[in-house]
Amino acid sequence: MSHRFLFIATIISLTAATSFARTVNVHGSVTLNGTAEPLYGIAIYNGTSDKLIGITNEEGRYAVTLDSNDDLVFSSQLTKEHREPLKGRLRVDVELMPEANELQEVEVIAEGGGNTLETEPTDIGVCGNSLILKTSVKIPPEMFSSEKRMIVQPALYNVTRRQLQYMTPIVYDGWRYDVTQERMLDWDMTKDPLLPYQQVKNNGRKGENRITINDSIYVENTDEDFMFIVMSSLENYNRVIYADTFELARGTVNPLRFLTYNTKPQPMNEDKFKPLPEVEMRDSKGEMQLTFPVGKSRLDLSLGNNAAELHAMLVEFSTIENDPNMTLKQFSINGYASPEGRYESNKRLAQSRVNATMDYIMQMLNPELSKDAQKITHSEVSPWEDVVTLLRNDSLSDEADALQAVIDRYSGFDARSAAVTRLPFYRSLIVTKYLPQLRRVNYIISYSRYRPLTDEEIAELYAKNPTGLTKYQYYRLYTSRNDEAREEALVNALKAHPDFVVAATDLADIRLNQDKNPIDILEPFFTDKSKWNELPLSTRYNMGLCCMKAKNYSRADSLLKDLPDTSEFHTAKIYSTALNGKYRQVMTEICEDSPINEVVILLALKDNAQAWRRAQKLGNSANEEYIKAIAANRVDEYLLAITHLGNALRQDPTLIEIAKIDGDINGILDDIDQNSEQQENE
Questions:
Q1: DSSP bridge pairs for 619
Q2: pLDDT at 108
């Protein structure tokens, strides 16, 4: 017997508007309070005449005609009734509050007494992510006549999410009703939103009026709790004379949920997608120190270590010139004169030494090496403070203090230099040992050498800035790490480079092995379906596993079916095909996988006798006992079904959540406790 619920959403066409002297055409939208969600199927009444004058379409919009002083009344069993005075407005947008009442029993109001629609028993079938409704509705002859319209609106109610989805309506018009609508004054049939679904019954009360429903609807997760209902209304020209809502079925019939299989995710294994080694620019510097005679700027190679210093410098230049991965960036020469004598003379002397050194080096260098390099010269006179430092370095503190006293007493450079010459140790110590050290020329070569960084250098960069590496550097980094450090590096790699498909694939591999679903990590790469085939195979494969884990079997099958049928992909391919409703294509192979899969496939094929025969040979695990219960119930072995289900629930109490939404089982749940008590008494 079908149950009736307080879930009436009357679906009818616009009735002809009665002509008034001051009529207006009103339109607007109806949404759910606090959201932008349009409400479909909201009945709209003329508050003065209490006549139904319209209904909202799938976008929540409506258009009605009524007197400018009338009220609009918006009504639905899903929302609280709302009255809106028109006051001459031509547009009225309203937000309706949801009705919190649960579905409850209702009384049928039908012409002639208790006559009701009759429906055949049915199940909620599952095909991939589509729920299937196949049934018929019989309209008793006493209810229907040629002057009436019967509307049958099948719908799917998601009990888990408390969401209603309408399916294709069926509009059943008597022939007089149809003719009257066509002839009605000012009636435009194209405004009837139900016109595309209209069927005209020509034999009036004679014969059986049977409506066939064969429809499907897509859902995101077939493991949620669903209910198929039929909302119906019967109207004549002026009013609704009958309205009712019937439950057709509760719980999905989906034995495929018990298929057992084992799939392993894949890391990125296609070299062409991996980042190529990158060379990095690394600066280096070289220095030399040339010495000059007192008061002279000529470069003398025989003096001191000048020849060796210049030779070492030229070898370094030669190395740069002959290495295709190196380039000269900058060449700097800094010249220094000792501080004795007049400052301006010393300054000119320092510059002359710089110029002489630069000229010599440029003559020795290949012009191609130096033409693009920046050349910088700098000259200065070493201050007396440098001599103080050299004295202290040699532990000559008394001499250093005496020299510092002169520096502190005299402010001018020339005056200070003259005073220093009067120190008793000036000629014996400063002139002979320290001033020559201040007559020098230094050079700095700055060059770029392009080479891949070492793992140590990459780790150092990562420690300083975890989101500052290149793709290749991240790849080198995380492939050299394990466990949490590897996962952390992958997360930071995707923060720095959201388009890094290699890192996303490898992170998804880790998360899938942790029995998590990283679909959010891979989703950005799959927004454009036309580009799926351009992605790495392992990326598409891991995304397919994510979709299977999310119960989105239709998408999983789309992703996996085009992968090559190799050993690493084969299992996922055949099971995504089966779970997407195409199990007949792969049932032989799946049946060979395990005895439990064979019984599941037989149940899906509705070969119930064979399924029960094979189910009795299964083991006694919780899932096997549950499947035995399904098979027993299918062949009317009711007591055995209760026994096996009880065994399953005792082993795994969590199976009760599946049993509640399982159309094969939920009808016997109430009898399990009674059977258990009876067995204990026996």
A1: none
A2: 32
